[in-house]
Amino acid sequence: MNNALLEFKEVWKTYGNEQTKMNALKGINLSLKKNSFNLILGPSGSGKTTLLNIASLLDTPTKGKVILGDKHTSNLSKTERSKIRMNEIGIIYQRANLFPYLNVLENVMLPMISKDKNKALELLKSMGINETSQFPEKLSAEDQQKVALSRAMINDPSLILADEPTGELDTDSTNVIMKLIKDIGQRCTVLIVSNNTDLFEYADNLFSLKEGIIIKK
Ligand code: ADP
Ligand code: MG
């Protein structure tokens, strides 16, 4: 019985052409167990966003395999990959990227498959957001990130991916958001990539990424 939700096998990513060629990822092997909480720390340019974009199936490896659940993702069409992303993966970024002309509830319900308004309200409430008819600009950066997290969770994904989720936040807000993500990690697999070494204390599984090479800590 395979207990891994996400696996990278010898994953390489090469950018550029013959002259400008650079290897952003150099043979990454990674296996994330179901419901595990994982953190990859690495400096700017180490390949974090590249790795996360491959994990989210937005991008494909130059070489190697990515297995999500029991699916080998290499042979999937773009449409099939989008479908998996929508159903099984929630993604958050450094900026909340909320739509300014939609209110909080509408932002969270936008990608929602079931369109169950009460479920969306409950989820927001569990994140501490009660003012759901506000527009994003009225919210603090911390609250905006809570809304983004709710939106990422709305279809009950099995995998949550976060690219520098606390990059725009002060220390207090960073701790609030990390605790929320940690809590979510009880229910699904979480992978966070960041250059903020202060986050290490939250990790159950810690990795470091340097120049496209990953090391388990
Ligand atoms: P990080 O998120 O850790 O800052 P990235 O994954 O964004 O790292 O980038 C890793 C390396 O790949 C960097 O040297 C970056 O310049 C390069 N890179 C990233 N995206 C591209 C791209 N689309 N084309 C060419 N080089 C890229
Ligand atoms: Mg990045």
Can you offer a commentary on this structure?
It is globular and about 50 Å long. The protein has six helices and ten strands; from the N terminus they run βββαββαβαααβαβββ. The protein is of the alpha/beta class and 217 residues long. It has a domain at 37-58 and 86-212: 3-Layer(aba) Sandwich (Rossmann fold). It has helices at 48-55, 78-88, 104-109, 117-126, 141-153, 171-184; strands at 4-15, 22-33, 37-41, 63-68, 71-72, 89-92, 159-163, 189-194, 205-210, 213-216. It has a six-stranded mixed beta sheet, sandwiched between helices. It has a four-stranded antiparallel beta sheet with strand order 2-1-4-5, with helices on one face. The structure holds adenosine-5'-diphosphate (ADP) and magnesium ion. Magnesium ion binds next to helix 1. Magnesium ion (MG) binds at residues 48-49, 163.
